[in-house]
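Fold this sequence, please.
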Amino acid sequence: MGTNRLQQALTNLHNAVREVEAALDEMRGEHDPIAVHIFVSRRHYRNIADTKSGKRRSVSARLSWDVASTLGFRGSLGEWERLMGAVARR
């Protein structure tokens, strides 16, 4: 009776490992929308031609932060600007 129980447990474990591997493969195939938005926003922020006052970059950061908030970013505008490379860390 012990051998059958061990064999069944190993079979269940094997099936669970296959299921986890399939889920991981599926996740690797999908793109994270917030990660894509961060990548695109950083590039846009870096390449923007700014005015003397810095208003163009400020508006760009605020607009991209609004989009990021709808995608699930939970940080503040200041944290988003640091992520974009606007403000040096203190």
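Residues 33-84 form one domain. The mean pLDDT is 85.
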